[in-house]
């Protein structure tokens, strides 16, 4: 647990905490949706300094965590194929598939590379015309513009050996699914500032109005999160349900119009499976038919991913805020960062990994 003076802007931290304590009159259950926000809450000890009446539950906001096991298996199958270079962001390499991870596939001879940008994969395709280069495009709305742009650049360069395996997912439908769960007790959301920097706040207006649930978009610093929690408490105590922007220094109402234009040119809405949750209608993006030559699913004739989840992992309950990582009997024992049972432990933004590394019992 941190002492107040250890935080950046300790006066603001103290001020927000004091306001929360002065305002709160009953228990409130709030969900931060983004894995980066979960990580910040746990790492910075905010869960320890919040009043007991605030119950923070952790959402499915880590795209690596909710990538279906079957799709990871497909990526591994492609990586092991002859004359294929499979590229992805670093976190995906360690997530276990049914039998192995992409990192283990690389150890077994697959040409698997981790990159910081899909544009690097386009360059690799230019440099290796005799190889099929596939970028495993995982992420929420935040990473979609760069992945879409890579397709447009590959088309512009006339590359016939570049494609993406799209596992893009959308936040609003997942929020709806969490609220639709009979066990849900969520009374307010903290929205992800990085997602809204692309899509804008407007994407959440319908949920707030129709569901009558407050939502505050925040950044990732402790002061951002505490101010966001304060703003939610102010709404809840007043019986209000509004969409508010704590992260106004970064997030405009309409997001990034150019980024959204690129997304809309390459991707279209589709149903998408979320690991631990199931198939959510209209919750993902797939490559449009006019760009089918750059869609690895079409190019390599891949079928629908077959789910093969471990019966020992309670990832689904953790990702929907029903249970906490330490509620799992395998947490820190059979399931740890070296031998993870599920993606919430292996991803750097997974709730289980955050609890393992930064809570007292395992620090």
Brief overview:
This protein is α/β, with parallel strands linked by helices and 363 residues long. It has helices at 10-23, 35-43, 46-49, 63-66, 69-79, 90-93, 102-107, 118-127, 144-156, 171-180, 193-199, 205-211, 222-237, 257-266, 296-299, 315-319, 343-346, 351-358; strands at 28-34, 54-61, 84-88, 111-114, 132-139, 162-169, 188-192, 215-218, 243-245, 267-274, 278-287.
Please provide a written account of the structure.
The protein is built from 18 helices and eleven strands. It is of the alpha/beta class. Helix 2 packs parallel to helix 18, helix 8 runs parallel beside helix 9 (144-156) and helix 9 crosses helix 14. The longest helix has 16 residues, at 222-237. The protein has one domain (1-300, 311-363): Rossmann fold, CATH 3.40.50.11740. Helix content is 40%, strand content 19%. The chain is globular and about 65 Å long. The N and C termini lie close together (11 Å). The protein has a six-stranded mixed sheet with strand order 4-3-5-6-11-10, sandwiched between helices. The chain has a five-stranded parallel sheet with strand order 2-1-7-8-9.
